[in-house]
Amino acid sequence: FGISASQGVTDDSTSFSTRLKNIIYTYLSYYFQLSAAKAAEKVMVEKLGKSITPIWDTVSNMTWMLTNTEPMLEFAKPTLHKIVDIGGISVHKPKPLEKVCIKFLIVMKSFYFWYWDQILGMRYRTILISFGSVLQSSKMPDAYKRAVMNLVKSHSDITFIWKYENTKAPFANGLKNLILSKYTTAARRIRNLLAKRPFTPEEKLVKTVEVAAEFGHIPEYLVMGRNLNFIVYYNLDIFLLLLTFCLVTALTILYGATKLLKRIKVEKVKAE
To answer: How far is residue 193's CA from residue 187's CA, in Å, rounded to a whole number?
Structure first.
């Protein structure tokens, strides 16, 4: 349960509170999907009759599943070969820049690197404070902001770079070791990763459709776990066997030890 649930609001850290929330949200997500499927199946029965294939049977027998997900922007998770991530396929491709724009970008890039070299060279240590692209630091409660400011003030020998939406925020005035920046190199790294990923969403979609058109239903992509019952799926029979073996072993040892102690006691009495 280290992976966030589909209806969850936590991250993929392994702290106790996060794992507890993930368990709760996992079951809430399950019941949400179950209720949605039941409602859809009820309508299908009313419109098409009782001979329709149940929704969960249809889902489990799908050869391909296309998801609007980009792995570079998601939590790491176990997945199946049948799941094809095509997130970002609707994003328009950028148009080629003119030569003047390219030269301008080269100059700006050189200035960018020079600027950050100066920042990183101000002190021996530098710390980046960033809460990602979704959570905006400017909307944090004032108490949280004051906590960050107190941290910055208490370590004047460290340069702090805070990813903040308003670089002219008044609370940063007078703090020489605090740099407010709208963008950080982390966002640039993600952009470069997306640009150099092995396969684009378009390529994955086209290849998947071509294979589906040529081979149709592919049984090799079906997971055997879809037909397992509760006991087999969670290996409860194996755990029960191991538990029984451990109990029998423990009872045997206890019985043998008891018999041995009684025998020693009897022999001791006879000797007296």
So the answer is: 10
